[in-house]
Amino acid sequence: MDYQIILSPRAIQDLEGAVRYIAFDNPQRAESYGRELIEKTKVLRQFPELGRMVPEFRGSGARELIHGNYRIVYRVNHVKRTVEVSRFWHGARGTPELY
């Protein structure tokens, strides 16, 4: 049975912000890049521990996948069989802020 992917409200805001920012220069690319970020999370349904532990948050259980300049930060709950995506964080912004 696959894990359920849950996007936190903050992750949704991050995704919308990224798409809006890219759209200033290239609306078509913005839409496709947003889809790519979502697609990247789908692999976590079958491989929830695929990403590395977030170096800045050792011991917190936070993991990340890298896609282009973005860090997709998430946590796995094996009991509930869920993966909660916390942030879509642009690498140029430094350390991700987790809530």
Strand content: 25-35%
Instruction: Tell me the strand order in the biggest sheet.
Output: 1-5-4-3-2
Count structural domains: 1
Q: Helicity range of the residues?
A: 25-40%
Number of strands: 5
Count of alpha/pi helices: 2
Topology summary:
Blueprint: E1 4-7, H1 9-23, H2 27-42, E2 52-53, E3 63-67, E4 70-77, E5 82-90
Parallel strand pairs: 1-5
Antiparallel strand pairs: 2-3, 3-4, 4-5
Concise overview:
This protein is α+β, with helices and mostly antiparallel strands and 99 residues long. The chain is built from 2 helices and 5 strands.
Descriptive notes:
The protein has a five-stranded mixed β-sheet. The protein has helices spanning 9-23, 27-42, and strands spanning 4-7, 52-53, 63-67, 70-77, 82-90. It is of the alpha+beta class. The protein has two helices and five strands. The chain is 31% helix and 28% strand. A hairpin with a 2-residue loop joins strand 3 (63-67) and strand 4. It has one domain (4-91): 2-Layer Sandwich (YaeB-like fold), CATH 3.30.2310.20. It starts with a strand and ends in a 9-residue tail after the last strand. The mean pLDDT is 92.
Could you list some keywords that capture this structure?
99 residues; five-stranded mixed β-sheet; 2 helices; YaeB-like fold; 28% strand; 31% helix; single chain; alpha+beta
